[in-house]
Design a protein that fits this description.
By secondary structure, the chain is an alpha/beta fold. It has eight helices and twelve strands. It has helices at residues 12-24, 35-45, 61-68, 89-97, 110-124, 161-172, 180-186, 198-210; strands spanning 4-8, 28-32, 49-53, 80-84, 102-105, 136-138, 141-144, 149-152, 155-157, 178-179, 220-223, 227-230. The strands form three sheets. It has a five-stranded parallel beta sheet, sandwiched between helices. Strands 6-7-8-9 form a four-stranded antiparallel beta sheet, covered by helices on one side. A hairpin with a 2-residue loop joins β8 and β9 (155-157). The chain starts with a strand and ends in a 5-residue tail after the last strand. Keywords: DNA-binding, Phosphoprotein, Transcription, Transcription regulation.
C-alpha cells in the first residue's frame, strides 16, 4: 500500500518524525505547519490522506476539517486522521462530527500511528491506484528509497547515508526551503554526531556530485538567512 499523505503539524520535530515514518512505510509525504498551508496543499496536491493536528496556527484543525468536508473542492473525499493533545470528549466528538475519519490523542507511538493510517487508507480505498513507483523524482534527480539509489540526469550518484536522506527529504518537497535544523533531523540515525553546520558540508559534497558547476549551483540552492532548497535544475 502506497499513498501520498499530507501532514499538517506545527511541531517541526513531531512533523519530521511522522514524515520519516511514512517514508519508511513506502508512502510519500508533504509537511506543512499551519492550517492555511494545509488547505493550499490539499487543493494543489489532492493527497490520499491528511494527518491533521487540531492545534494549528492561522487556521486550526477544526477550521481545516470544516473546509475539507464542506463544498470546497479541496476536500474531494480525502480522509482525515486527527491528532489532538486535548483528550476532552467534546473536542474529539466535534472533530468526528466535522467529518474526521479517525483520531489519535498525543502522545502516541509512531507504530500505532502508521497502523491507524493503514486502516484509514484501506477503509477509504484511497490507496488503490495511487503511485506504486517508490522513486521520488525532482530537478533531474531520481531518488529510490527502497534501493537506496540516486540518479542525476540518468547517471548513478554515490551518496553517503546522510547525503541520501537529505536528498530524499528535499526531492520529496521540491522548492520547499529547509532550515539546517530540518535537514539535520533528516540524517538522524545516520549521522548522530553532526551539528547543524555539518549540513553545509553535506550540501557542498552533494553539489560536487549533482551540479555541472558546484560554484554556480542550479539544483541545490542557498536561501540566505534560512537554509537550502532543491530547485528545477535549469540554468
Amino acid at each position: 500500500m502506497c499513498a501520498h499523505v499530507l501532514v499538517a503539524e506545527d511541531d517541526e520535530m513531531q512533523a519530521e518524525l511522522i514524515r520519516r515514518s511514512l517514508l519508511a512505510e513506502g508512502h510519500t509525504a508533504t509537511v506543512v505547519h499551519d492550517g492555511a498551508a494545509a488547505l493550499d496543499a490539499a487543493r494543489r496536491l489532492r493527497p490520499d490522506l491528511v494527518v491533521l493536528d487540531l492545534m494549528l496556527p492561522v487556521v486550526d484543525g477544526f477550521g481545516v476539517c470544516r473546509v475539507l468536508r464542506g463544498s470546497d473542492p479541496a476536500g474531494d473525499g480525502i480522509p482525515v486522521l486527527m491528532l489532538t493533545a486535548r483528550s476532552e470528549e467534546d473536542d474529539v466528538l466535534l472533530g468526528l462530527e466535522l467529518g474526521a475519519d479517525d483520531y489519535m490523542t498525543k502522545p502516541y507511538s509512531p507504530r500505532e500511528l502508521m497502523a491507524r493510517i493503514r486502516t484509514v487508507l484501506r477503509r477509504s480505498g484511497r490507496a488503490v491506484g495511487v503511485r506504486e513507483d517508490p522513486v521520488v523524482r525532482a530537478a533531474g534527480l531520481a531518488v529510490d528509497p527502497e534501493r537506496h539509489e540516486v540518479r542525476c540526469d540518468g547517471e548513478p550518484v554515490e551518496c553517503t547515508p546522510a547525503e541520501f536522506q537529505i536528498l530524499l527529504a528535499m526531492a520529496t518537497e521540491p522548492e520547499r526551503v529547509f532550515t539546517r535544523r530540518q535537514l539535520l533531523q533528516a540524517t538522524r540515525g545516520f549521522d548522530r554526531s553532526s551539528t547543524e553546520r555539518a549540513v553545509d558540508v553535506h550540501i557542498m559534497n552533494l553539489r560536487k556530485k549533482i551540479e555541472a558547476d558546484p560554484r554556480r549551483p542550479v539544483r541545490l540552492l542557498t536561501v540566505f538567512g534560512v537554509g537550502y532548497k532543491l530547485s528545477g535544475g535549469r540554468p
